[in-house]
Amino acid sequence: IQGAQASAERIQGLLDAEVTIKDSEEVERRIESQRALPGDGSGATYGGKRGVSEFEKAIDGGDARIARIEFCGVRFTYEGGQTVLEEFDLEVEAGQTIALVGPTGGGKSTIVSLVCRFYEPSEGEVRINGVDYRERSLDWLQSQLGMVLQTPHLFSGTVRENIRYGRLEASDAEVEEAAQLVNAHEFISNLSEGYETEVGEGGNQLSTGQKQLVSLARAILADPQVLVMDEATSSVDTETEGLIQRGVERALEGRIAFVIAHRLSTIRSADRILVIEGGRIVEDGDHEGVMRLGGRYYRLYTNQFAEEAGEGVLGGR
Q1: Which of 30, 122, 145, 236 lies at a CB distance of 3.0 to 4.6 Å from 209, suitable for a disulfide?
Q2: Model confidence, pTM
Q3: Nearest 5°: phi and psi at 19?
Q4: Phi/psi of residue 235, each to 5°?
């Protein structure tokens, strides 16, 4: 009874929470006006909200694909008064993978949170296809996101059900196609009941690496235009990391991706590596380019490589 009461209080607290990031009244009005228009006969809807889809198509001239994300003079300050980003500028094109590295507190997670519109800029703009994303639908933007976090979370149920959570109407074939794309199909097929294997509460019947692959397959099944990976391989062994990395490289094709990396070996193939310190970009380029600078990234990479090599020697002994 006490446990149920505590849970009920937490649920009520969530329901009572005031939403601070939401569509403006003007955006809501324009979505409603699009919803009221007669359909084109295709029956196409966005998440059951036709008005949202038509609103975004109207903004982008008939296409709601994300071709470009821009940070324009962005300043971000937390409620407590701590400024994390100051005059931050960045432009990312579709198909690019952007790796964010740097010390803790430098602003990496804040940049990603602003992209996802979990926060909004204190000053400046984040633009999608040249339009301030506060003039767009929040539902639309966040439906285009896929996220793979450091600690994957699975629900009690089968492997197939956990992957399908990314897109509930997906067929069995589409679920398995997503698993194959991220290199999860082989390990799933070797489980006692394949895709029908129960994963246990929180996925406790699977290893961390296996849970991460299922989580990645789930994200890819949703076919996101923007994929965010936050330390997704930091908790797995080197062999599984390689498996995940090969799956990630295939999954990122054609998408905008933001990768926060702890193991720098996983971002060598990124289109751009940004070293973030004090809320600013201090180094920018591909792996070879920033290594040639001989600066912060070079020191981080060489030190980490030396540490991993030393651990390998000790492990061999």
Answers
A1: 236
A2: 0.84
A3: -80, 120
A4: -110, 15
